[in-house]
């Protein structure tokens, strides 16, 4: 096949959930994913509410069959040095989940494939032009590929590769980065509490979570300019910052850094337009939230399901088919900005800190 109703560029949770939704309705779907799902991916914490979209998609087995840990609580030293706990026993949706993201994403793509979607792994998007249908150029290890589609969907994550190529512009709201460290235990049989932990310091905040592999992920969130002004290597800066924490510094007594620190973009951003004639963006390709929101995968799954509803409701050929989707995305993003500001307002211990002062009120885009 080289002609499809919908071509989805990107096979993460947003792209895969959209593919599954559309296949349930009988549309022909292509998913082009640049990776083979082998490389580690950030975003391993699943909100308890993730069971809702997974159930709607009919793929709860994906969660059960993916290596995971049940997450029982969130602990936070936020606004004070005291570590408080929000236990999921009080959550109507049950526990959270800590998953291996690459395996979770791969399982979702396979679920779409089982329903009849064509999933091309290890395939890069090159370009797309519209001549009644979209003519899409791809490339993989076998060479150049050319396919046609009535609709093209950008699910490429924060790079928004398709949308930007079609003229959309990214609007950034901060400079947040994550300095991510993976730690391995010093001794066999080390027990890791299955809770997500947050802790603030003057220069930013820490995020610690156990992984199903037995490792621990510890990421420090700060602004890019604050990190660059320090003139340290990512690994040196990470060690310097964790030693300033009160609770997480004790990790270094039981765990050691497995590899060099990686820097990941964690900023809040949105596209100036979420859709256009014959195309739309979903998941982080449309807008990305601060990891503090803790619902990146949930947002991606819901975005795939919501966009499929608009596609099915309005058809594939109407110029204004996705106005409702774009309006809904804009409202959700504005609500997120309000909640982000409320949460950052709770930390008032460092009024002279540039990191915290930047977040003490709603900001305009930069």
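^ structure tokens above, recovered residues below v
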């Amino acid at each position: 096949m080289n002609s499809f109703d919908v071509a989805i560029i990107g096979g993460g949770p947003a792209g895969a959930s959209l593919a599954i939704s559309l296949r349930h309705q009988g549309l022909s779907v292509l998913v082009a994913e640049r990776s083979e799902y082998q490389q580690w991916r950030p975003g391993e914490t699943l909100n308890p509410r993730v069971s809702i979209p997974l159930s709607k998609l009919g793929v709860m087995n994906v969660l059960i069959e993916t290596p995971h840990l049940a997450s029982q609580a969130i602990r936070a030293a936020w606004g004070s040095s005291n570590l408080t706990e929000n236990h999921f026993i009080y959550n109507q949706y049950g526990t959270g989940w800590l998953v291996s993201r690459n395996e979770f994403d791969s399982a979702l793509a396979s679920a779409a494939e089982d329903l009849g979607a064509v999933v091309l792994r290890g395939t890069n998007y090159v370009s797309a032009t519209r001549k009644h249908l979209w003519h899409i150029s791809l490339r993989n290890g076998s060479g150049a590929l050319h396919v046609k589609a009535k609709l093209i969907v950008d699910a490429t994550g924060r790079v928004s590769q398709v949308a930007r190529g079609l003229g959309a512009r990214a609007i950034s709201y901060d400079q947040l980065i994550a300095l991510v460290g993976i730690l391995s235990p010093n001794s066999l049989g080390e027990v890791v509490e299955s809770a997500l932990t947050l802790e603030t310091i003057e220069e930013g905040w820490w995020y610690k979570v156990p992984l199903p592999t037995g490792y621990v992920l510890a990421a420090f969130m700060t602004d890019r300019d604050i990190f660059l002004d320090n003139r340290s290597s990512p690994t040196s800066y990470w060690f310097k910052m964790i030693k300033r924490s009160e609770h997480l510094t004790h990790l270094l007594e039981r765990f050691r850094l497995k590899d060099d620190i990686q820097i990941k973009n964690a900023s809040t951003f949105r596209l100036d337009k979420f859709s256009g004639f014959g195309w739309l963006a979903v998941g982080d390709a449309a807008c990305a939230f601060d990891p503090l929101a803790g619902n990146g995968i949930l947002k991606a799954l819901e975005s795939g399901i919501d966009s499929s509803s608009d596609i099915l409701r309005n058809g594939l050929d109407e110029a204004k088919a996705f106005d409702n989707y774009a309006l809904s995305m804009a409202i959700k993003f504005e609500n997120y900005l309000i909640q982000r500001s409320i949460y950052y307002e709770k930390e008032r211990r460092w009024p002279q800190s540039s990191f915290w002062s930047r977040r003490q009120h709603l900001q305009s885009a930069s």
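Residues 323-345 form the longest helix (23 residues).
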